[in-house]
Amino acid sequence: MQPGASIESDRALLAYASTDLQTVYHPTSTCRMGSDQRAVVDPELRVREVENLWVADASVMPSVPRGHPNAVVAMIAERAARWVERAMLA
Fold it and tell me: DSSP of 40-78, one letter per residue?
């Protein structure tokens, strides 16, 4: 378990944090979704003003999830697949 018993003070803990801790970067929430003119995609994930193009990834999440985004991305993709299929068969 890190940082271990060698950390005996707040100063040592801060030093450990500044040199040894890392983050896992999962970019999300970069393509605004909505009905307004400033949205990148509509509520069915279609890119505004581009025919037959959908976005089905973490970029359409309205906020950053507290955990790993994998399950949420899978759900977004599943829903998008239905919308794309419906549009292509229409």
Answer: SB-TT-BBTTSTT-B--SGGG-SS--SS-SHHHHHHHHH
Neighbours of 73 (CB within 10 A): 19
What is the DSSP-derived secondary structure letter of residue 37?
T
Q: Are the CB atoms for 35 and 43 separated by under 8 Å?
A: yes
pTM exceeds 0.70 for this model: no
Cite the active site residues: 26
What distance in Å separates the CA atoms of residue 22 and residue 33, rounded to the nearest whole number? 30
The pair phi, psi for residue 54, each rounded to 5°, is -120, 155
Whether the pLDDT of residue 68 is over 70: the answer is: yes
